[in-house]
Amino acid sequence: MGEKVIAVLTSGGDAPGMNAAVRAVARVGLSYGMRVIGIHRGYNGLLHGDMFEMNLRSVSDVIHRGGTILYTARSPEFKTDEGVKRAAKTCKDVGIEGLIVVGGDGSFRGARELSKYGIPCIGIPGTIDNDIRCSEYTIGFDTAMNTAMEMVDKIRDTAQSHDRCSVVEVMGRRCGDIALQTGIAVGATAILVPEVAYDFDRDVIKRIKFTQMTGKKHFIIIVAEGIGGVDNIARKIHDIVGIEARATILGHVQRGGSPTLRDRVVASTMGTHAVELILGGKTNRVVAMQQGKIIDFDINEALEMKREFDINLYNAALRISI
To answer: Among all residues, which ones are annotated catalytic?
Structure first.
């Protein structure tokens, strides 16, 4: 038998720390005597044979870089059964005996489809939204939160100077974790997330009016992307409360930047775990963090899990920010 061949790709939205995961996969794989193939532009690259042989120097000076050196792209073709079959054939033609996919829920569904055609896959959770059901933490989340916090801190400086209300939309279409934790960190008067139904008068207006009575003159409202409508929220605050209110959408600035220490370390340990799973013949798994430890789940089990929103932390946020 020759050397074991593994491959790595990044898929879905980019997240700071993906490069640290790719670096760990390459270095650990090579240290075990494997051949490591880097695939460009996710499943699209797999379909079109856009790949290269990695060596130790392929991942030099990448651990501190945001984005992904392997790039990422959408692939409508891969979403078809014909596309999956073609991708599986490419893997077999190249001799890939284990494919490591760094990405989110959709990326893992793609890996599960490939595994049905005999391609052993491992998923590593890389998404700033922290919305992978089986894992309490995803690569990129800490960096995104810190970026959002720094941006809102700057917005607060001008809000305070003008006795203004700033309504800030942070990323998170289906998951309010960035909004919740950023909201606590910046002392937001109100935090609106997709997981908790809200009443505008009770949860925004009354909270602003109450804190006004205690002497507060400037306000931060944090809104998750899944709630949206920040311009309308700002307008209503101005009309009802009579204070100047401005809306800001932070957008893709939250995806970029140098990953934090936490994201670099978690990505490195998850990448190592993924390679060791393949080495031990344990495939079609998703790497996850539970209670601070790196573990793994069967890919089908991982995709069927339900995600719990931290309602206790949300309730604590309401009590703190008054």
So the answer is: 129
pLDDT, tens only, 89-143: 999 999 999 999 999 999 999 999 999 999 999 999 999 999 999 999 999 999 9
> β-pairing, 293-298 with 285-290?
antiparallel
Concatenating the DSSP letter of every residue in 69-114 gives: TT-----GGGGSHHHHHHHHHHHHHHT-SEEEEEE-HHHHHHHHHH
Query: Contact 212/225 with Cβ under 8 angstroms?
Result: no
Query: Model confidence over 284-302: pLDDT tens digits?
Result: 999 999 999 999 999 999 9
The strand pairing partners of 38, in sequence order, are: 8, 52
**Six-digit token pair at 60?**
């030099």
Say if residue 305 is exposed, middle or buried (CB neighbours under 10 Å; 0-12, 13-18, 19+): middle
Radius of gyration for the chain, computed over Cα atoms and rounded to the nearest angstrom:
22
Nearest Cα neighbor of 283 from 296, 271, 292 is 296
Instruction: Determine the Cα–Cα distance for residues 166 and 292; give it in Å rounded to an integer.
Output: 35
Measured between alpha carbons, how far is residue 228 from residues 150, 152, 247 in Å? 21, 17, 11
pTM of the model: 0.95
Distance CA 139, CA 21 (A): 9
Q: Which two structure tokens, joined as six digits, stand for 311?
A: 């309602």
- At 275 the three-state DSSP class reads helix
Distance CA 134, CA 125 (A): 9
Contact indicator for 221, 192 with CB cutoff of 8 Å: yes
Q: Could you give all domains of the chain from N- to C-terminal order, each with its CATH number?
A: 5-140+259-304 (3.40.50.450), 142-256 (3.40.50.460)
